[in-house]
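Thread: NAP complex, take 2
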Amino acid sequence: MQAFIVHRYGDPTARRIGEVPLPEPASDEVLVKVHAAGINPLDSKLAAGAYKAVLPYRTPFILGHDLAGVVERIGRGVTRFQPGDAVFARPRDGRIGTLAAFIAVNEADLARKPANLTMEQAASLPLVGLTAWQILVERAHVEAGQKVLIHAGSGGFGTIAIQLAKHLGAHVATTTGPANLALVQRLGAAVAVNYRSERFEDRLEGYDLVINTQDKATLERSIGVLKPGGQLISLSGPPDAEFAREAGLNPLLRLVVGAMSAAIRRKARRHAVRYAFHLMRASGAQLERLTPLLENGTIQPVVDRIYPFAQIAEAFAHLESGHARGKLVVRID
Ligand SMILES: NC(=O)c1ccc[n+]([C@@H]2O[C@H](COP(=O)([O-])OP(=O)(O)OC[C@H]3O[C@@H](n4cnc5c(N)ncnc54)[C@H](OP(=O)(O)O)[C@@H]3O)[C@@H](O)[C@H]2O)c1
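Output below.
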C-alpha cells in the first residue's frame, strides 16, 4: 500500500510517498481503510526530530495522527466494531501512521464517525478535539462564567477549543491575525485580539485559564492576564516534571525536562498561578463524548483546505507557514 514515510529525521527532503506492506491487526486492533487524514504541527515536529526523547520512532516510519475511514477487518478480540463501520481516531503514540491507505488501530482509540460529517471533516477533529477536551474538561474543569484565553483561535486547535469553551459557558478571549478576527468571533470568542497590532495583556485581566500555543514570550506575557489561582497551560512547551513522570522518562531525563520549565514555573509562582505543560493522548471514549456536540452542531469543524494525497508536500508547506485557518486535511485515495 502507499504511505507517507519519514526516512530521516530533520530532513524535509527525506519524507515521501512510498510502498509499504499492509499492516496486520493484532487481536485488539481494527484494520481501517483510511479515507482522509488530518495533519498537525505535531507531524512536522516529529519529523524534525523535536520529540525524539519522548516519542522515539525508528525511521523509516509513517507519519499522521488523525484519520477518518471505514473498518476493513477486525482482530479476534475486537467487540465494538464490525467491517463496514465508519470511524474516526487519533491512534495512540507508538502506533501512528494515518497518512497511508490502511492502518491498524487499537479498538480503544477508535470511535464511530459523527453521522453528519464528511470523512474530511471527521479527519480534521480527533487530535485537536481530544486536546481541547483534555484541557478544558478534564484538566481545568472549566465552568460557566469563567474567563478563558485561547491563543491562536484561528488555528486547528483554537477553532475547536473556542467552540468547546463557549459550550461550557466560559467567556472566551483569543488572539489571531486581522484576517481571522471575524472567524473567531463567529466561533464564539467574546474578545478577539489582533496579535499584529495589539498587546493582549493590555486588554485582558482576571482570567481563570490561559492556553498557550505560541512562543516563550507569549507564554511569559500570559501570566499577567491570569487572576491569582489561575492556570497557565501550554501546548507548545516547555515540558514540566509531571509530564516527564507521566511519559515514563528515566530519572536523568526527568531532571533535564524539569529544568526546562524551571523559569516559567518560578514566574508563575510569583504571580500565584499554576503552570503545566499538556501533551494530548489518544482516547476513543473521549471522542465519543465529543460526538453528540458534533452531531448537534454545537462544535463545527473548520477545514481550511483538502489536499489530494499526491500533493502532501504542499499540504505540509501550508501547515508549516503557521497560517492555516482551521485544519488541513489530506484525502487518501
Ligand atoms: N501538546 C499538545 O498535545 C498539542 C496539541 C495540539 C496542538 N499543539 C500545539 O499547539 C500549537 C498550535 O497548533 P494548531 O494545530 O492550532 O496550529 P496551526 O493550525 O498551524 O495554527 C495556525 C494559526 O495560528 C495563528 N497564529 C500564528 N501566529 C500567531 C500568534 N503570534 N498569535 C496568535 N495566533 C497566531 C494563525 O493566524 P494568522 O494566520 O491570522 O496569523 C493561524 O490561523 C502548535 O505548536 C501545536 O504543536 C500541541
